[in-house]
Design a protein that fits this description.
This protein is of the alpha/beta class. It folds into 2 domains: 2-127 and 299-345, Quinone Oxidoreductase, Chain A, domain 1; 134-272, NAD(P)-binding Rossmann-like Domain (Rossmann fold, 3-Layer(aba) Sandwich). The chain has 12 helices and 15 strands. Strand 11, helix 7 and strand 12 form a beta-alpha-beta unit. Helix 3 packs across helix 4. The protein is globular.
Length: 346
């Protein structure tokens, strides 16, 4: 099968190679405790910031070189155990952790979900990492409640746009912080009620929009210099949920700020937490399926690249040019009708 491998740690522009490699015969070692795997014919693969970090050896998951990156896929089941919850021929979205940049991949059953007919393969490849992260970060870690207000940084990116939709699905009000007019429009399409510019007085504007009270939750996948102002934007009892550091710098904080305003900083590392909790993954999947059914969740796919242009896809993320989810089209014919026809013929 065709696959993309990371062959060295020189960065996204040069670390990748297109190779012909044997198809996976069994789950990777990190999935052996999950009760076997589901073999998927990959039609689309999601591209995310962790893969950028992997090309530099900066991500916590560091397999020996060379290895196939790619944590999430959408495609058609080619093999599955009777108790996997999906059947051969079914369209699915799945989180495989590694191996997704290939024509076939293996995912654990508890992170393999039937792909709703409302979504095509590219949207399916945008669903697991970003939307499960957003739901976990907002509901479980951020304790977001209906009627509260959430401010989302990086709101035109994959996690940010997912968080806007999930927050609305949870009944919250949404403020988006973005860095350009193009990203502002994208955030509105994702469901932002108000859009603020990161190069403007967004902290003060957020307070004005909440009648001076401040926001209840800030979701921050960016980090960097805006972190302190995020704390200042919180209402009493507010929660700043840290999802990542795409801005590069890992911020530090004077903890007296938390004491004075009775606020919290909360970490939200979905992968390390959820991979050992199959029931949680299923529960989040069910909640998102309901949001898809009612129309709240619709993954916004930005740039799409063929498999052999994986380096360009990663560079778009690395240079912060990406809007929504970046996707690799691994197989030809990834539109909705082709997906439905494939399932019907199976």
């Amino acid at each position: 099968m065709r696959a993309i491998q990371i062959v060295d740690l020189s960065g996204p522009a040069s670390a990748l190679a297109l190779v012909d490699t044997p198809a996976p015969a069994q789950p990777p070692s990190h999935m052996l405790s999950a009760g076997g795997g589901v073999l998927i014919e990959v039609h689309a693969a999601g591209v995310s910031f962790p893969e950028v970090l992997q090309t530099r050896g900066q991500y916590q998951l560091k397999p020996p070189l060379p290895f196939i990156p790619g944590s999430e896929v959408a495609g058609i089941v080619r093999a599955a155990s009777p108790d996997a919850g999906v059947r051969v021929g079914e369209r699915v979205a799945a989180f495989c952790a590694l191996g997704g940049f290939a024509e076939q991949a293996v995912a654990p059953p508890f992170l393999t979900f039937p792909l709703p007919q409302e979504l095509d393969f590219a949207q399916g490849a945008s669903l697991i990492l970003n939307y499960h992260t957003a739901h976990f970060a907002l509901q479980l870690r951020g304790r977001l409640r209906a009627g509260e207000t959430v401010l989302v940084h990086g709101a035109a990116g994959g996690v940010g746009s997912a968080a806007l939709q999930v927050a609305r699905g949870l009944g919250a009000h949404t403020l988006a912080v973005v860095s350009s007019d193009e990203k502002a429009q994208f955030a509105r399409e994702a469901g932002a009620e108000q859009v603020l510019r990161s190069d403007g007085p967004w902290k003060d504007q957020a307070r004005e929009l909440t009648d001076g009270r401040g926001v209840d939750v800030v979701l921050d996948p960016v980090g960097g210099e805006r972190f302190t102002d995020s704390l200042r934007a919180l209402a009493e009892g507010g929660r700043l949920v840290v999802v990542g550091f795409t801005g590069g710098a890992i911020p530090e904080v004077r903890v007296n700020r938390l004491l004075l305003a009775n606020t919290e900083i909360v970490g939200a590392g979905w992968g390390g937490y959820a991979l050992g909790k199959p029931r949680l993954c299923r529960d989040i999947g069910a909640a998102l399926a309901q949001m898809i059914e009612d129309g709240t969740v619709r993954p916004l796919v930005g740039a799409r690249y063929p498999l052999e242009q994986a380096a360009q896809a990663l560079q778009a993320i690395d240079e912060r040019r990406a809007l929504g989810k970046v996707v690799l089209d691994v197989q030809a014919g990834t539109d909705v009708q082709a997906s439905v026809d494939a399932q019907a013929a199976a």
